[in-house]
Amino acid sequence: MHGWIPVTVQAAAVLSLVLAVDWRSRRWLWRLPLIGALGLAAAGCAYWLVTDDGLSGQPPPLMLWLWIALTGAAAALLVLGWRGAAWWRRGIVLLAVPLCLLSTGLTLNSWVGYFPTVQSAWGQLTSGPLPDQSDLAAVNAIAGSGTVPGRGHVLRVAIPADSSHFKHRGELVYLPPAWFAQDPPPPLPAVMMIGGEFNTPADWLRSGGAIKAVDDFAAAHHGNAPVLVFVDSGGSFNNDTECVNGPRGNAADHLTEDVVPYLISHFGVSAEPSRWGVVGWSMGGTCAVDLTTMHPDKFSAFVDIAGDLSPNAGTRSQTINRLFGGSVDAWAAFDPSTVIARHGRYSGVSGWFAVDDSTAKSDTGGQLAAATSLCALGQTNGIDCAVISEPGQHDWPFAGRVFTHALPWLAARLSTPGVKPVPFPDTSSGATGRHAHP
User: Fold this and answer.
1) CB 47 within 8 A of CB 69
2) Residue 144 pLDDT
3) Do strands 171-175 and 153-157 pair parallel, antiparallel, or not at all (unpaired)?
4) What pTM did the predictor assign?
5) Other Cβ atoms closer than 10 A to 173
6) DSSP line for 75-111
7) Bridge-based pairing state of the strands 245-246 and 350-356
8) CA 388, CA 438: separation in Å to the nearest integer?
9) What DSSP string describes 344-411?
10) What are the helix and strand counts (H, E) for the chain?
11) Cβ neighbourhood burial of 288 (10 Å; 0-12, 13-18, 19+)
């Protein structure tokens, strides 16, 4: 999705727009400024939406606004230029609108890395099979056979929301080969996987490459790896809950009161908090810190990949209104800095803060400042942590690389069988392209 396809589609979109406009008459000439103005208005509205809702900590590329403007202009051209146009020109402008819209989507995708390939996009569109996807019957058959598979298995699960009453979509569980080694299964550690602001539970599998990373890790450790649960923190694709309880739903209660007991009772994972971790990307990174520091009785380790300082749904006042119904006390209860300060000394809690090097250089969006602040406060209160920057930008490929790099450390911290203790990476030489921040 980053090769010839975007270039080809965008070239076709520009060509169709040029042919659709063409010269018609002097009267038609006067309509062109209006069409251009409507296109700019579309880009302006999109810019306001992104800014007002705090949808991005980093500025979107200029080409995204350009394609939104061209899409708006194409739609205006369709309406204002339909009457009196030749049939072939009408056909071209009908083609120009979806081509411009598709070009906008491809530009957006190149920025966030949501779909790395056409196959992953098609799989999402058609709800196609996920990597290692299996069904309960197949899992039960293998579990009772005494045969350890070469790869893990992914199951779709319907976790009841009896405690939270949070309306959520189906979620996913990855079972490593070691889970099948005995019956009942061994009490393996578990890791909760949380995606970004706009998400589906399958994002970590389709866009983040999590299954290949954990399968490769298990293969190098005699089948041993944590059980992963890919959770639904939003209930819908665009419901930004920031993993808190509030007007947008009791997302926090779902993750802690529904998901954790379900994994323990249905898959036999360890109930010890020292063997539970949370990994989150972007919004999910904020969730990872929040859940662990709020619930050290349930989680002991987190990987925060490009998260914010606190739950973020715009400005501070907008966040309080949108996520907490205007309650400052409710906001403070989910603000990691406040939570850590109020809790005081932690024991056995650790965290990996990851930021991309473009953020580390410019600190756009304050993610390096957020990670440094939270880690410093955490260390003061007994949390063992480090801030690591790696090459990349704020997109899914970066999240996938960080998960691959952090998994050995996380698995060791959660006492995964057969995994030796792993320290934070030594970045002093800079050989890996990674850098530790004090």
Assistant:
1) no
2) 72
3) antiparallel
4) 0.82
5) 25
6) HHHHHHTSTT--HHHHHHHHHHHHHHHHHHHHHHHHH
7) unpaired
8) 9
9) ---SS-EEEEEEEHHHHHH-GGGHHHHHHHHHHHHHHTT-EEEEEEESS-SSHHHHHHHHHHHHHHHH
10) 18, 11
11) buried
Residues of the chain with CATH 3.40.50.1820: 129-437
The amino acid at 437? H
Average model confidence (pLDDT) across the chain: 88
| Distance, CA of 335 to CA of 329 (rounded, Å) | 10
One-letter identity of residue 205: L
**Cβ(399)–Cβ(281) below 8 Å:** yes
Cβ pair 340, 259 in contact under 8 A: no
Give, as one character, the DSSP assignment of residue 286: H
Structure tokens belonging to residue 315: 């400005």
Q: How far is CA 75 from CA 65, 80, 108, 419, in A?
A: 15, 9, 19, 57
191-235 residue pLDDT tens: 999 999 888 999 999 989 999 999 999 999 999 999 999 999 999
Instruction: For residue 251, count CB atoms less than 10 angstroms from its CB and return exposed for 0-12, middle for 13-18, buried for 19 or more.
Output: buried
Strand partners, 156: 172
> Residue 427 — pLDDT band, cuts 50, 70, 90?
low
What span, in angstroms and rounded, lies between the C-alpha atoms of 434 and 427? Answer: 6
Residues in CB range of 213: below 8 A, 6 or more apart: 400, 403, 404, 407
Helices 62-80 and 87-112 cross at an angle (nearest 10°) of 160
Q: What does CATH list as the number for 129-437?
A: 3.40.50.1820
